[in-house]
TrEMBL record:
Lineage: Bacteria, Pseudomonadati, Pseudomonadota, Alphaproteobacteria, Hyphomicrobiales
Protein name, entry field: Galactofuranose ABC transporter, galactofuranose-binding protein YtfQ
Main location: other
Gene name of the record: ytfQ
Species this chain originates from: Chelativorans intermedius
Localization (cell): Cell envelope
Entry-linked NCBIfam families: YtfQ_transport (NF041827)
């Protein structure tokens, strides 16, 4: 009858009328570019009007974007927080405006009543998986490790370091001899690796590289080759993200292992948001995405073909 028709029409209108503000960190890595592509596709699929703001890695730009979204009266906000701290006041403002905030791929140190849910992988587990691969593949030989950390103060940089160190603890032959941020970029990863090589006898003292993402590893692989060494052999290479280009390196024997991070955080985020706004279903504070280890044994070029058109 009329009621059914009205609710059907209203329901359809309500669902398609969602306006969501997305404060994205930037495009520091191939993985982040893919996350942006996928988020726009997921919004499109759902008829969500997505307001996109790129912060060029600056927290103050993210805070400005959130204030603008609040002023516009969006229905919800997606935030990929560049660093963990400094969010309390702007998240309080969103809460006062009754605008739910969903965190994507990174967390904040603020209390969890300031956001609806966080869609992230288990970042500590990723570090453990990377460390475990090295423990299993180095055996008892002495192995000096250099580490390229992610963006200083970001939850992935803190967590991935923690997990890796947990995995190698108790294996005294495995030692991190140098550790520095490469800010998740290829350029910086290459630069910092060049300095590690120079400082360590041209790389003769280095047995392995642990990079918090593939982009820094890919930059470092370039530096290792330019130093006349064989990445993947003279210096083992372990990283995280599983972007297409790391599979080319795995296939070429220039990298050894990567831990997959899905770029599709927005799918689960929008599902939780719609259930919350349309049916009042309160999501858990953490929606965890999976992490899968890939090595040279996993048909890298097949995986490359599967991933290469996903917007990296
Ligand atoms: C991790 C995510 C990281 C990626 C990097 O969840 O925040 O940020 O691993 C990106 O590639 O820069």
């Amino acid at each position: 009858g009329a009621t059914m028709l009205a609710s059907a029409v209203f329901g359809a209108t309500a669902a398609s009328a969602l306006t969501v503000g997305f404060s994205q960190i930037g495009s520091e890595s191939g993985w982040r570019a893919a996350e942006t592509t996928v988020t726009k596709q997921e919004a499109e699929r759902r008829g969500i009007d997505l307001k996109f703001a790129d912060a060029q890695q600056k927290q103050e730009n993210q805070i400005k974007a959130l204030r603008s979204f609040i002023a516009q009266g969006v229905d919800a906000i997606l935030l990929a927080p560049v660093v963990e701290t400094g969010w309390e006041s702007v998240l309080e403002e969103a809460k006062d405006a009754e605008i739910p905030v969903i965190l994507l791929d990174r967390t904040v140190s603020a209390s969890d009543d300031l956001y609806l849910t966080a869609v992230t992988s288990d970042l500590v587990h990723e570090g453990r998986v990377a460390g475990q691969w090295l423990v299993e593949n180095v055996g008892d030989r002495a192995c000096n490790i250099v580490e390229l950390q992610g963006t200083t103060g970001s939850s992935p940089a803190i967590a991935r370091k923690k997990g890796f160190e947990e995995a190698i603890a108790g294996h005294d032959n495995l030692k991190i001899i140098r550790s520095q941020t490469g800010d998740f970029t290829r350029t910086k990863g290459k630069e910092v690796m060049e300095s590690f090589l120079k400082a360590e006898n041209g790389g003769a003292n280095i047995c392995a590289l642990y990079a918090h993402n593939d982009d820094m590893a890919l930059g470092a692989i370039q530096a290792i080759k330019e130093a006349g060494l064989k990445p993947g052999e003279d210096i083992l290479v372990v990283s995280i993200d599983a972007v297409p280009d790391i599979f080319k390196a795995l296939d070429a024997g220039e990298a050894n292992a990567t831990v997959e991070l899905t770029p599709n955080m927005a799918g689960p985020a929008f599902d939780a948001l719609e259930a919350y706004l349309n049916d009042g279903v309160v999501p858990p504070k953490w929606i965890q995405t999976e992490s899968k280890l890939y090595t040279q044994a996993d048909d890298p070029m097949k995986v490359y073909e599967e991933k290469k058109n996903l917007g990296y």
